[in-house]
Amino acid sequence: MTETLDFLKDHTLAVYSATWCPDCQRLDRWLQEKKVAHQTVRIDQDEGAAEKLEQETGKQAIPFILVDGKKWVRGYHTEDRVRFNESKLLAELRAAVA
Predict the structure, then answer these.
(1) Taking a C-beta distance cutoff of 8 angstroms, is the pair 12, 69 a contact?
(2) Which CATH number fits domain 3-97: 3.40.1280.10, 3.40.30.10, 3.30.1360.10, 1.10.10.10?
(3) CA-wise closest residue to 31 among 68, 70, 1
């Protein structure tokens, strides 16, 4: 894990995603490249996962990251052309673990 991501090492990350989702694949690639430990929860395969995501976030969009089982962080950025912004994601993750 790079030094800038050390703040995540004592936290659990559950990434809610689906195999058919390009934003999810983008986030998963980034997490793997950065060697960020995480669990993947497939909303299209894990019973109740989609319902939990929608009930707790009010959203049906993915990917979302559940931090320490308490706070949700979006793993996509529709306001950006490429739909992923590393600095925004890191800022949101830092806020979630603070």
Answers:
(1) yes
(2) 3.40.30.10
(3) 1
What pLDDT, in 10s, does the model give residues 33-89?
Answer: 999 999 999 999 999 999 999 999 999 999 999 999 999 999 999 898 889 999 999
Gap between the Cα atoms of 89 and 16, Å rounded: 15
3-state secondary structure the chain: CCHHHHHHCCCCEEEEECCCCHHHHHHHHHHHHCCCCCEEEECCCCCCHHHHHHHHHCCCCCCEEEECCCEEEECCCCCCCCCCCHHHHHHHHHHHHC
Q: Domain residues of the chain, as ranges?
A: 3-97
